[in-house]
Recover the amino acids of this structure.
C-alpha cells in the first residue's frame, strides 16, 4: 500500500521536485491544445436522489435547504435514512462503459474526465484506502477502470478528477441535529471528518484541515494516479486553501515524476490560483476570458445551467449555445470541457444524448476550424462580447450575424459566424484593405472563400476598405456558420 514516505521519495527523485520553481518546468501535453473538446462526467450517489444538484449530500443535512425537506418527505428522517443509505440503491444496472464512450466519441470529444471522487467521499474506483467505493459497494464495479479501458480502446485520452478536498467539511452539518452523522468519527469512516464548514472563500479559514486529513487526501490522490495513470488530473476548488500548499506541491512532483517514468506527458488542471502559474493548466469554471490568452487554458461547464449531475429539473442549454461557447474558447486559445450527468441507473438521459450527437454532427462538418486550429491575431469582431471570469452563465449570450470568431489552420483562416447570416450577405471587417498599405489590419491575398457544409452555395466575394464582402444564396441555420478563407 502506498505511504506518505513513498510519495516523498518519488517527489524528490526528479526530474521534478516539490517546489514551485521546479514545477514551473511543466510542459503542456502536446495532444491537449490539439484536442479542443472533452467531456466531463459527474456521476455518483447524488445521481440517485437526482434532486436540485450534486451537492445533495451536504444540503440534505441543512435545515434551510430544499434538500432537507425533500429528503424527509421522500426517504424519511436523516437519522433513519442518511446519505450512506443511497449506496445500495446505486446499482448502475444500465451502465455500459463502451456505450458511454461511443456516444462521447460520436460527440466529437477527444478526451474525457469522469469524476473519481466527489465531495461526498464515495470513490468511483477500487481503493485500498477505503471500503466506501463502487468496486465494493453499490454497483460493485470499478467504474473508473471500465471507462479507462473503453476510452483507450476507442482512442480517447483518459483523464480524471478529484474533489476530495472539500470532504473536510462537506458532511459537517449533519452533526448539528439528530442525524446518522455522529461522533465519534474516525479515519476510514464514510462521513469522516465532517468538520464545521469554514468560509470557503477565505484562504486561511478555520477549522484548518488537519495533517491526518491532508495526508489522507495525498494518499488517495496518489493511489488514483498510480492505479489509473490519467493523462490529466483536475482539481476542484478549495485546494487553494493555505493548508494544502505543501501537500499539493508534493503531489504535483509525484505525479509529474510518475508521468516521466511512464513516458507520458501529464498535467494538472487547477482553479483559483491553487498552483503557481506555469506549473499546470489554468481552469475556469462556467466562464471564459474576454480576450485571447498567451497561455493555454480550459473552461469547464455543464450541459445544464443549474446542475452538474442528473436531476429531474435540469435547465438545459441549447446545442447552439454550447457550440458558441466552444468557438469562443478555441478562438481565445483554450479548450472546452463539457459535463454530462448520467442517471443513477447508469443510462445517459435522452436530452444529453441528443445534444452530444448534434455537437458531433456540427463538428463532423466544421471540425477543421476547431481541431488543431490556432487563434488568429484577432479573436473576433462584432458587437457581442463576453465577461472575463467564472460563473458567467446565468443567461445565454445572444450573438448577432455581425459577430465572428477567428481560427487558423494551414493555409486557411476560418471566420465563424456566431449567428445565421442575414439574407445571404456577410461582411468581415477584420479583412478590410485599402490602397494605403499602411492602414489595413490585413495584408494577405485571398484565394477562395467557401462555406463549410454548404459548398454548393457559390460565394461571391470582394475585398473593400470596409471588409471582406460576401454574397451567397441565403442560408437558414440554427448553428454557427464557418467561412473558410484560403490564402495564397
Amino acid at each position: 500500500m502506498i505511504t506518505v514516505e513513498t510519495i516523498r521519495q518519488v517527489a524528490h527523485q526528479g526530474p521534478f521536485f516539490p517546489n514551485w520553481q521546479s514545477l514551473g518546468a511543466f510542459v503542456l501535453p502536446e495532444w491537449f491544445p490539439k484536442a479542443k473538446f472533452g467531456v466531463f462526467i459527474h456521476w455518483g450517489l447524488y445521481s440517485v436522489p437526482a434532486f436540485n444538484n450534486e451537492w445533495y449530500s451536504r444540503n440534505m443535512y441543512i435545515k434551510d435547504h430544499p434538500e432537507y425537506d425533500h429528503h424527509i418527505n421522500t426517504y424519511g428522517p436523516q437519522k433513519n435514512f442518511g446519505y450512506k443509505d443511497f449506496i445500495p440503491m446505486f446499482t448502475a444496472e444500465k451502465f455500459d462503459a463502451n456505450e458511454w464512450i461511443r456516444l462521447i466519441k460520436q460527440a466529437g470529444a477527444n478526451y474525457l474526465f469522469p469524476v473519481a471522487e466527489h465531495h461526498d467521499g464515495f470513490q468511483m474506483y477500487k481503493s485500498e484506502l477505503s471500503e466506501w467505493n463502487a468496486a465494493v459497494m453499490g454497483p460493485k464495479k470499478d467504474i473508473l477502470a471500465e471507462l479507462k479501458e473503453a476510452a483507450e480502446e476507442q482512442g480517447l485520452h483518459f483523464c480524471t478528477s478529484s474533489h476530495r478536498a472539500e470532504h473536510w467539511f462537506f458532511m459537517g452539518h449533519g452533526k448539528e441535529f439528530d442525524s446518522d452523522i455522529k461522533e465519534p468519527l474516525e479515519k476510514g469512516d464514510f462521513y469522516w471528518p465532517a468538520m464545521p464548514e469554514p468560509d470557503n472563500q477565505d484562504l486561511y479559514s478555520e477549522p484548518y484541515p488537519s495533517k491526518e486529513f491532508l495526508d489522507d487526501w495525498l494518499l488517495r490522490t496518489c493511489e488514483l494516479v498510480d492505479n489509473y495513470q490519467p493523462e490529466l488530473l483536475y482539481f476542484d476548488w478549495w485546494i487553494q486553501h493555505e493548508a494544502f500548499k505543501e501537500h499539493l506541491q508534493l503531489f504535483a512532483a509525484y505525479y509529474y515524476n510518475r508521468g516521466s517514468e511512464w513516458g507520458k506527458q501529464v498535467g494538472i488542471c487547477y482553479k483559483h490560483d491553487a498552483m503557481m502559474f506555469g506549473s499546470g493548466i489554468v481552469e475556469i469554471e462556467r466562464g471564459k476570458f474576454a480576450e485571447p490568452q498567451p497561455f493555454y487554458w480550459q473552461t469547464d461547464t455543464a450541459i445544464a445551467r443549474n446542475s452538474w449531475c442528473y436531476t429531474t429539473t435540469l435547465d438545459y442549454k441549447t446545442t447552439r449555445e454550447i457550440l458558441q461557447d466552444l468557438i469562443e474558447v478555441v478562438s481565445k486559445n483554450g479548450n472546452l470541457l463539457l459535463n454530462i450527468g448520467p442517471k443513477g441507473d447508469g443510462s445517459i438521459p435522452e436530452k444529453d444524448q441528443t445534444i452530444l450527437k448534434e455537437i458531433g454532427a456540427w463538428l463532423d462538418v466544421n471540425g477543421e476550424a476547431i481541431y488543431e486550429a490556432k487563434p488568429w491575431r484577432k479573436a473576433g469582431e462584432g458587437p457581442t462580447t463576453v465577461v472575463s471570469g467564472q460563473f458567467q452563465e446565468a443567461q445565454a449570450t445572444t450573438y448577432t450575424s455581425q459577430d465572428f470568431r477567428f481560427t487558423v489552420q494551414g493555409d486557411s483562416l476560418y471566420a465563424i459566424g456566431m449567428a445565421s447570416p442575414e439574407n445571404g450577405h456577410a461582411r468581415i471587417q477584420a479583412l478590410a484593405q485599402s490602397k494605403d498599405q499602411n492602414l489595413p489590419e490585413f495584408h494577405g491575398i485571398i484565394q477562395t472563400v467557401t462555406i463549410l457544409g454548404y459548398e454548393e452555395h457559390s460565394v461571391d466575394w470582394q475585398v473593400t476598405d470596409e471588409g471582406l464582402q460576401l454574397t451567397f444564396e441565403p442560408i437558414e441555420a440554427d448553428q454557427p456558420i464557418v467561412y473558410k478563407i484560403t490564402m495564397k
